[in-house]
Specification:
The structure holds 2 protein chains of 2 kinds. By secondary structure, chain A is an alpha/beta fold. In chain A, 27% of the residues lie in helices and 31% in strands. By secondary structure, chain B is α/β, with parallel strands linked by helices. Classes of the chains: A alpha/beta, B alpha/beta.
Chain lengths: 248, 314
């Protein structure tokens, strides 16, 4: 079985985002970029399935500008067999990303697609579900445990009510939650080895997918600041303050 | 004119309060009609609950054995068909809505607006990105159906009205797949108030130190009638089950009172509580980031302070 893994590059999760004063965007120049944390988890899970003999090949897929190649090399250094780089300079929204994956699936015929549950930049949480719909295959979102046997995936999902277990016939789309696994670190010799691994480059337009903006973002703003708080010196003062506000 | 279809969320035959919050967002558009769609095996009790929500025009039911569990692959084709004639399809931005609605949007060939915080117009919305560190205004295409999930923490639950909206059973012509099957739900059931709808929440973090020590948080929460939450650190350390996690990757809540105990306040946690009415922080580290957003802060050892709080409450 072949596994396709979505591997998005985003502003590092430790960076405190600044909104441009003119409301046209957030400052991304000179800001540290990293793999979307949920995508690292997706890649780790695919590698573990390969190590268990469930899969033979793991392919990381990135959509973005020419310099995304360096990011895909990180995925190869972590252990992916090869990478596909869909090149575009346009911003790509989830519906476009799902359509790109649908085209790649036609060509690659994977048994499983693993994506992160959301990207920490647009926080959309849509691409996996949209892909499953376009592909007309099962989806198992927010996965915290995945077992593959007899042509089906048994997936434990983190839902508001607790943990839900579902069965999905393969091929299927799985999206990862934080507790699925702990991604491995990249070792120096693997960075060297990754340099000789293949990266296929495909222009987005050649897939017959348009990167049009389905949603237009017209303004960016910083969130409303909370007013400055007060410090109390002990428990009695805290209780008094809360009682005064009618909260206790 | 706008006509809005709101997808009902329910569990164990009861309507989830998140549905009434999605109705509030629908009301903000001032539409011609707001219909609530209930997909279940037994719809009657859920539909009766939905019919009482103020602002609801009609409750539509799709009762089928296949709808016994909320499987997105099964529900989405039915919702997509039922959406014909509606200008908007809304669902709460809970794990239920997040799972099913993008699948509906893709079937309709449209984008989805995730986590709507405010309605600026029938096609203009505000939503958070970068863990709530930026708020964007987005415009959806007015020529296609708007599919959106509603950030429950940003909207009050629409109240129960006097009259009941009419309930109508509908049927749709949709082929349902059998490739996805429900196995079981292991719920972290408790008698405490539900974390997402509670007016008071007491949360513990890594500072609580162990699963056993978390009893002090439960006990204090029970004393003031609060739900219990936790930071990611407390969940990862195994102190509490993951459905208690508050933050960007857990639940986003807006209680009247939020007490963060032994929580340093990572960006990802703060995202989950930014809309709380009053935030109280109790932490032994006076430099902890949680104090930057707390309305009331108290520096000290939680194991000393909580018993003192209980004593002060009598």
């Amino acid at each position: 079985m072949k596994i396709l893994v979505g591997y998005k590059r985003v502003v590092d999760y430790n960076v405190r985002i600044q909104v441009k004063p003119d409301g046209t965007g957030v400052v991304t120049d000179g800001v540290k970029l990293s793999a979307n944390p949920f995508d690292d988890i997706a890649l780790e899970e695919a590698l573990r399935l390969r190590e268990k003999g469930v899969a033979e090949e793991v392919v990381v897929v990135g959509i973005g500008p020419a310099d995304l190649t360096a990011h895909l090399r990180n995925g190869l250094a972590m252990g992916a067999n090869r990478a596909i780089h869909v090149v575009t300079t346009d911003a790509v929204q989830p519906l476009t990303a799902a359509r790109v994956f649908q085209k790649l699936i036609e060509k690659e015929q994977p048994g499983l697609v693993i994506l992160g549950k959301q990207a920490i930049d647009d926080d959309a949480n849509q691409t996996g579900q949209m892909l499953a719909a376009l592909w007309d295959r099962p989806q198992a979102t927010f996965a915290s445990k995945v077992e593959i046997a007899d042509g089906k995936a048994t997936v434990t999902r983190e839902v508001d009510a607790g943990l839900e277990v579902i069965e999905a016939e393969l091929p299927a789309v799985i999206t990862t939650d934080l507790r699925l696994n702990e991604p491995r670190f990249i070792k120096l010799p693997d960075i060297m080895k990754a340099k000789s691994k293949p990266i296929d480059t495909i222009e987005l337009g050649s897939l017959g997918v348009e990167a049009n903006d389905h949603l237009k973002t017209t303004h960016y703003a910083a969130p409303a600041k909370r007013s400055k708080g007060v410090m109390v010196k002990d428990a009695a003062e805290l209780v008094a303050a809360l009682k005064q506000k009618g909260l206790l | 004119m706008s006509k809005i279809l709101v997808i009902a969320e329910h569990l164990d035959g009861k309507l989830n309060p998140s549905t009434a919050r999605a109705v509030s967002a629908a009301v903000a558009i001032k539409p011609q009609a707001i219909d609530v769609l209930v997909l279940a095996d037994n719809v009657d009790a859920i539909a009766a609950d939905a019919a009482r929500i103020e602002g609801v025009s009609r409750v539509l039911t799709l009762a089928r054995a296949e709808n016994a569990h909320p499987l997105a692959a099964v529900l989405a084709p039915q919702i997509a068909k039922a959406a014909a004639g509606y200008s908007h399809v809304f669902a709460p931005s809970t794990t239920f809505g997040k799972d099913v609605l993008p699948r509906v949007a893709a079937l309709l060939g449209v984008a989805q607006v995730s986590d709507v915080m405010s309605v600026e117009g029938a096609h203009t919305f505000k939503r958070p990105i970068y863990a709530g560190n930026a708020i964007i205004t987005v415009e959806a295409d007015p020529n296609t159906t708007v599919v959106a999930t509603i950030r429950t923490a940003s909207w009050p639950a629409a109240s129960n009205g006097a009259g009941g909206a009419p309930v109508e059973a509908i049927s749709v012509d949709a082929a349902l797949p059998s490739h996805t099957r429900f196995v079981e739900l292991q719920s972290g059931k408790s008698d405490r108030p539900d974390l997402q709808s509670a007016s008071k929440v007491v949360s513990g973090g890594r500072g609580v130190g162990s699963k056993e020590n978390f009893e002090i948080i439960y006990k204090f929460a029970d004393k003031i009638g609060a739900a219990v939450g936790a930071s990611r650190a407390a969940v990862d350390a195994g102190y509490v089950p993951s459905d208690l996690q508050v933050g960007q990757t857990g639940k986003i809540i807006a209680p009247e009172l939020y007490m963060a105990i032994g929580i340093s306040g990572a960006i990802q946690h703060l995202t989950g509580i930014k809309d709380a009415g009053t935030i109280v922080a109790i932490n032994k580290d006076g430099e902890a980031p949680i104090f930057e957003i707390a309305d009331i802060g108290l520096v000290g050892d939680l194991f000393k302070i909580i018993p003192e709080l209980e004593q002060a409450l009598g």
